[in-house]
Amino acid sequence: MSADREKGIADGRFRFIFGVPFLIRLSRGSDSRACARIGGSPATRSVRPAPGWECIEPMKFALFGDIHANLEALQTVLADARARQCTHFVCLGDLVGYNANPVECLDLVRDLGCPVVKGNHDEEASEDTDLEGLNPLAEAALLWTRAQLDEQRKDWLRDLKMIRQVRDFTIVHATLDSPDSWAYVMNKFDAMASFSYQFTQLCFYGHTHAPKIYLKDDSVYSVDRTGISVKPGTKYFINCGSVGQPRDGDWRAAYATYDVVGKRIEIHRLEYDIDTAQNKIIEAGLPEMLATRLALGK
Fold it and tell me: Under a CB-based contact definition with an 8 Å cutoff, are residues 244 and 66 in contact?
């Protein structure tokens, strides 16, 4: 085996495709495609591969949820994801509730044609069930939201699945062990229950409105980071934060990106036109506290 080939194995630049080792090198610049060839020579940086080379197209996911009818935040997130050259979009649920643009946010996500899972506010907004037990702010917002949505949009929300597998990862709004009970993953013990039902290396979720990364190898623990590299032998349960109503003390919209080729996950925070979002809440006749809490990140 050549020294170059041995080095490729050592530093992880080999990928095995149908059992055949390919030497991978990402091209630099705006084109993030990876060129590969069987053998030991380094890949060229040319966008057009020479004969015998294969280009692996980039695959970068933008994962976002807990939009809660905040159109200004959602538009900012989608624009940023496109600027970061995301090729695919995934929604983790709770498109509606709390804020003043449920129709526009639902239509925008639906038009993406991306995988979406159901959140608890999506479920409540699409049904005519009693809202007893909800806090007064959520109840008032859901009653208002029900009046804004037509039956066709309610049907679309109703038909959303609780759990989906997308490529090599799983998505859920709340928990994997009991997704329709809408329990919260607040600590490593809560995460343990979901890890028991996680059959992919990665799972992305929402519901708590606070970004968090849980890992499982020899034990289950969390890390306070805005980015992490995916390592073999470790499982990841990742909360992508909230687009439209963060509750971690930071008012900025949150979402995550997953670079499949680079095996890298990043959580991003973005300022958006919060004044417009707040004014819309008040003009719609929704509780003023819903506008106030946006700026508090609570």
Answer: yes
- Cα–Cα distance between 200 and 151 in angstroms, integer? 35
Asked if the 60-289 domain carries CATH number 3.30.460.80, the reply is: no
Compute the distance between CA of residue 155 and CA of residue 43 in angstroms, rounded to an integer.
Answer: 50
Average pLDDT along the chain, 298 residues, taken 10 residues at a time: 42 42 40 40 43 70 98 98 98 98 98 98 94 88 97 98 97 97 96 97 98 97 93 97 97 98 97 98 97 96
Q: What is the model's pLDDT at position 54?
A: 55
- Residue whose pair of structure tokens reads 């009970």 in the numeric block: 181
Please give the pLDDT value at position 129: 87
CA atoms within 13 A on the CB side of 88: 14
pTM across the whole model: 0.82
